[in-house]
Every structure is written in C-alpha cells, then in structure tokens.
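quick q for whoever's on today - can somebody do inverse folding on this one?? i tried earlier but teh output was garbage lol. tokens:
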C-alpha cells in the first residue's frame, strides 16, 4: 500500500497539461469518486489496524497533494491563456466608437482651410475684452446701440471689461501690433445679451477675415467672396452684394448666396427669394486703420465677418441653434461622416 501511495505521489508530482480539457481528464483520473485515490481509500479498509494511522496519514497527504497539483495546473493555464500566444486574431473586432468632431468645429475648420489656401493665417484674441478693442477702435460712436447693456455683457459695472460681441476685436489687436501686409482669419466665440431661443443664443461663433496691403480694392474683396462661396457651397453657387452699414467699414455690404437648397429657384428656406444672407463685409474704414497706427494714405484693406452657426445651418439644415450647445450625442453622432 505504501508503495502504491509513493508511486502515485511521484506520478502526480510530474503531471503536465496543455489545456483545460487535459486538466479535467487528470482530475477525473486521480480525484473523482472512481479515481485512483478513491480506489486507494477503498483498499484502506483492509489495512491492518496497527498500520491504519500511518497509512491514513500518507493517504490524506496524497489527496491534498493531488488537489494542490490540479489547482496549480489550472492557475498556470489561466495565466497562459491571457498571454499573447492565445489571442484569436481572426475574431471579429469589437465595434469601436470614435468621438465625432462638433459640427461647428467642422465648419470652422472648413472656413479656415479655404482662407488658408488664399494665404490667410489664423489669429486669435481674448474673449474678455475692453471697450477700445470691441467698439471705440472700430469707429463705433459713443451712443451706438451695440454698446448698450441690452446687447453687451459687461463683466463688472464701471470697470472696462466686457465679453466681446464680435471677433472684429481681433482685427484691432493684430493691426496694433503688425504693419501690413496683414492677411488673417480669426475664428472665435462671441457673446451677446440675447434671450435664448431656437434662433438666438447668448453665445455663438464668428469668423473674421482681414486683408490690409497697398492697393487693396473692393474688386479683390468680391473675388475672395466668390471663391469662398463656391468652395464652401459648391461651384454652382452665385453671390450678390447688397449695400449695408457697419461702423468699421466704408463702403459696407452684406453678401447673399444663391439658396443652396433650391439652387436659387425659390423655396421656403430662402423665403422664395432664391437668396440667403451669409456675411457682412466692406473696405476697412480709414479711421480704423489710423486708430491702429496704420497709415490710411498708404494702405487700404477689406474685412468680412460671418457667423459659424449660420454657415453650419446652411450646410446641414440644423433648425434649432440650441442643439449646438446641448451636446446631445444623438445630434452629434449625425456628423460622424463629416468629421
Ligand atoms: N462684426 C460684424 C458683426 O458682428 C460682422 C462683420 C461685418 C465683420 C462686416 C466685418 C465686416 O469684418 O466687414 O455683426
């Protein structure tokens, strides 16, 4: 009996297995009710009383050893199965959701890229501004309604700190520091004290473009506008300029594009006119150049400004402005393909 126990102990000590099934076969062989150790336990009944104590101890030790060994094989196998050798490279991949870029970012990048191809470089300025950069330098009269509390968020009563109401303030900042030629495109967030509704928000986004050099004319502006409209909305797009007024440009104009939904035939979107308004523009007022230390007898330039939300609405027909800031993933996921 002792001999049998020792032989089994040696066998168990040397057990090896390559996978879970092999381990199970070994467990059944040694540890199941009909296994070899159970058989020895059965024989134990016939052992002489004097030897029972010693042999019983050996038998118990053998059983413990066997359990230990099987556990050890299982543990080894589990470690191994997480190693690289066991990765199934042919398995279908988990669906992997990458984030999407925000529609306003997509459109902002498109606009900047189009102007980038014309040699414009990006300039940015602070959102917290002072009266000079947002209004005075840009030729706003002291009693201009835009300065009113109704439109502008002032940060502290009496202090000269406010949230910029347009990105035209970046024009001033760049012109103050740089002599022409200047060719910049300024994207950014702006703030106005408006009640929030489907068509107005207290913050939105604009892109401003500015070109200052010798002999810049309205014809240059018009050509750039046409190029931009065609690149942004397709080669069939037409533009028209309507006279307008901005304090910082003279002459000033607003640009419409032929409605990109009906192609100019007239539809509810363009209120059956065939045209939709997209931006303001004009020749930089000589007063603005002088305010920023640029000699208006030598230099001239044009500026234009547009709302990114407006362009995005035209491209993607987003009907409610509030969707842009609610971050509802069901809305944002719809721009996956455009990202
Ligand atoms: N700053 C104007 C606005 O917020 C937009 C604008 C109009 C910018 C004409 C310009 C421009 O540079 O020339 O409504």
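ok took a stab at it. sequence:
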């Amino acid at each position: 009996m002792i001999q049998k126990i020792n032989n089994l102990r040696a066998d168990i000590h040397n057990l090896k297995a390559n996978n879970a099934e092999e381990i199970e076969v070994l467990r059944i062989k040694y540890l199941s009710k009909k296994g070899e150790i159970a058989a020895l336990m059965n024989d134990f009944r016939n052992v002489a009383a004097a030897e029972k104590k010693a042999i019983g101890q050996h038998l118990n030790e053998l059983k413990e050893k066997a359990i230990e060994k099987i556990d050890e094989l299982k543990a080894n196998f589990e470690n191994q199965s997480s190693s690289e050798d066991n990765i199934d490279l042919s398995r279908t991949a988990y669906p992997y959701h990458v984030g999407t870029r925000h529609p306003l970012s997509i459109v902002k990048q498109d606009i900047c890229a189009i102007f980038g191809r014309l040699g414009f470089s990006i300039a940015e300025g602070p959102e917290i501004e002072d009266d000079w950069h947002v209004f005075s330098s840009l030729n706003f009269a002291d009693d201009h309604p835009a300065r009113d509390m109704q439109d502008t968020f002032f940060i502290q009563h009496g202090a000269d700190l406010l949230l910029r109401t347009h990105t035209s303030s970046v024009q001033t900042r760049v012109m103050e520091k740089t002599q022409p030629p200047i060719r910049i495109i300024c994207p950014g967030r702006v703030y106005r004290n408006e009640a929030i509704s489907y068509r107005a928000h207290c913050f939105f986004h604009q892109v401003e473009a500015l070109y200052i050099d010798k002999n810049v004319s309205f014809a240059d502006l018009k050509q750039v506008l046409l190029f931009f409209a065609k690149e942004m909305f397709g080669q069939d797009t037409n533009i028209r300029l309507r006279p307008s007024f901005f304090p910082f440009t003279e002459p000033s104009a607003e640009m419409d594009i032929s409605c990109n939904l009906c192609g100019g035939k007239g539809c509810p979107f363009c209120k059956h006119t065939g045209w939709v308004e997209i931006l303001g523009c004009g020749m930089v007022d000589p007063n603005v150049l002088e305010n920023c230390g640029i000699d208006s007898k030598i230099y001239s330039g044009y500026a234009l400004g547009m709302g990114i939300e407006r362009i995005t609405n035209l491209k993607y027909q987003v009907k409610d402005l509030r969707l842009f800031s609610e971050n509802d993933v069901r809305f944002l996921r719809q721009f996956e393909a455009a990202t």
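fwiw The chain has two domains: 2-86, 103-335. also The radius of gyration is 39 Å. so keep that in mind when u check it
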